[in-house]
Please model this.
Amino acid sequence: MKKIKDIFKFKKQSAGLVCDVNPPSAYGSDIITVKNLTKQFMGIKAIDDLTVNFPQAKTIGLIGANGSGKTTLVNILTGMLFPDSGEIIVRDKKRTHIKSNELRKYRIARTFQDGRLIEQMSVIDNLLLPVAENNLIESLKEVSTKDYQDRLEKVLEITSLTEHKNKNAEELSYGLRKLLEIGRVLMQDADIYFFDEPFSGLFPEIVEQVCEIICGLQSQGKTIVIIEHNMSLIKRLCNYTIVLNHGKLLAEGIPEEVLQNKDVRESYLGV
Ligand code: ATP
Model:
């Protein structure tokens, strides 16, 4: 099997794999900004007048206590939910909401906390699903290109799914299912990748594999947003952190500083 490092460039340090903090693409501007965003569920403000920037080409840890609004924010930014009010600016274009069928246009891809695999479909067909959202003729054209076939082969390889490619999703172990979910977003040539708790419940060796995949994306200059509760993974992988508390911004900045912030320590880390 080809090594992941041969496919995606990354560097290793003695304390474990860490991402390259200086990825190659444009740096310094914001790829997404939300302004005064609000979303309520039956009177509960899941997102409360939130204004925050997502810097381009950074790996951003989106953290906060349970119920602080992380998934709601990602759902709004990936068109799964419409906000009640506020503005979303994606690459300088202002809008009040994003529609889920516009994600390809914005070059946004995401995973789901609960996985959204089609159980009775094969691994390959699950990987092809994002393309199938195109119209039929466009899908067939795209799938038959050499670039697409090369990408499919590469994604099967780095997710360790090559030997399982004809199995139905329901036949896979939990770890392979998580890798298939990740593989599905890798099939999309996006600029912004949202990973909602990609490490939850994984054995350490698969955690390492997912870290390598994320570092590979970072080395290509992608913007990555990771919802994660494990702070050592946040410190290893991320070069920016956004902390939510009751749907509001509590802190943002580089992880080492943010995790030392008094408010973050008191209200999230409980120390
Ligand atoms: P966790 O870390 O537990 O996944 P989170 O930070 O992602 O939490 P959200 O799932 O965004 O938080 O939830 C924010 C608030 O909104 C919580 O009070 C939650 O109960 C509420 N909420 C989220 N989705 C819904 C929904 N569909 N209907 C009702 N309330 C909801």
In short: The chain is about 35% helix and 25% strand. Residues 204-219 form the longest helix (16 residues).
